[in-house]
Amino acid sequence: MKRQIPIEEVKPARTGPLIAAATLIGIGMGGFVDGIVLHQILQWHQMISAKLPPDTLLNKETNMFWDGIFHAFTWLTTALGIYLLWRVAYERKAVLSNRIFGGSLLFGFGLFNIVEGIIDDHILVLHNVREISTNPSAWNFGFLGISLVMLAVGWMLVQRGRREVQVHH
């Protein structure tokens, strides 16, 4: 016969540490995709290319320096996320869930894009998503739109994962 567990003994599954770790990794990965794909491969913009167009060697070098500072930030964010994830797994600090992990990565990626897009593209006007364009604002707002979808889908996956974990815990 199965023992009934009094309601006060039932503890919800801990998911916060996994969400925090994966969100930080997602923020870092979002920064790396931005820096590697948009800055380096496609060369649509650099960190301060709206303020200092990379049309001379000195301007290009200055932009490259600030891209490096940006990459250092994304590396540190990713490293911190990996450290927290290690602690979650090693110390059994939270229930592990693929859906929560993947949703948190996507949420972090979208969060990075929203914050970076609003601050760098709209408030400080350091760069546009695509500098050489007949309508840079369309690229900037399109980037934010895609980022909002990433944020929402990530959030929904995390919430669905949390419900599943609670049912199976």
SSE topology:
Blueprint: H1 16-41, H2 57-90, H3 98-123, H4 136-168
Pfam family, one: DUF2243
Organism: Pontibacter virosus
Keywords: Membrane, Transmembrane, Transmembrane helix
Secondary structure tally: strands: 0
3D shape? elongated
User: What's the overall average pLDDT, rounded?
Assistant: 93
Report how far apart the termini are: 19 Å
> Which consecutive residue ranges, at least 5 long each, have pLDDT under 50?
none
Q: Helical segment tally?
A: 4
> Proportion of β residues?
under 5%
Number of discrete domains: 1
SS-derived structural category:
mainly alpha
Radius of gyration: 20 Å
- Give the proportion of residues in helices: over 70%
The SSE order reads: HHHH
Biggest sheet character: none
Pfam families: DUF2243 (PF10002)
Transmembrane segments: 21-44, 64-86, 98-119, 139-158
Keywords: Membrane, Transmembrane, Transmembrane helix
Protein name: Putative membrane protein
Please, could you describe this protein's structure?
The protein has 169 residues and is an all-alpha fold. It has one domain. It contains 4 helices and no strands. The longest helix is centred in the middle third of the chain and has 34 residues. It is elongated. The mean pLDDT is 93.
